[in-house]
Amino acid sequence: MKTFLRVLLVTPFLFISSCTKDSNPIGPGTTTPPKIEIGTEVTVATQAISTSGGRISVTSSDTLINGLELMVPKNSYGDARTFTISYAPIKSQQFQEFFRPISPLITISNGGGYADSMMVMRVPIALPNGAYPVAFYYDDQNQTLEPVPMLAFDRKSVTIMSKHFDVSGVSSGLSKSYRVFSSDPLSRYARLIITIVNKEIVDAIALKEPSITTGYSPGVDDWEFVNYGSYLVQE
Questions:
Q1: What is the span of the domain harbouring residue 45?
Q2: Exposure on the CB side of residue 48, measured as CA atoms within 13 A
Q3: Which pTM value belongs to this model?
Q4: Count of the separate structural domains present in the chain
């Protein structure tokens, strides 16, 4: 549990360091090199998932993501969805020095939109000694990173959870609290990267904030009376 909290503590630090002013083009008519340069993209799975849910597994030993699994719960979507998973090797990247990818750039698409249930994906990795993994969505249009919640990790895999694979379908120029998704299903996908951070860096940050607590104490801070609802409910 302490290890997981430490990873949560360092994730915003990595996220902030990657979102500098040069994350976007300077202005109209200018071009900047992509933050992440990739090789040839390879599709490894295309599978229709009905409203009954299902599992998608990558089992080819010829791929860089052999062993990847995606679990879609029952009734996640109101209609059948075709999931496509592909990957591309990362040739170079221009984020900060703390951004150290250990996975290829993984692309997942299913037509976009939010699911009603949390989808879980297990991503194979080879975690070096003395390192922690951190998962990010990469928005290739805005060239930014967004942390992805992790359920668990070990030396061979990282397990993430998400209610959507629709990062690139989000309209730019909007606040994070008000997201609008593109109506074009071909432009709606998510790109995932697993990176690592050295244990020494995580421990150094954790020493500054050794514990994370809300201050809430069960049985002490409880309100010991019945919640009868609001005035409108009583009416």
A1: 2-234
A2: 3
A3: 0.70
A4: 1
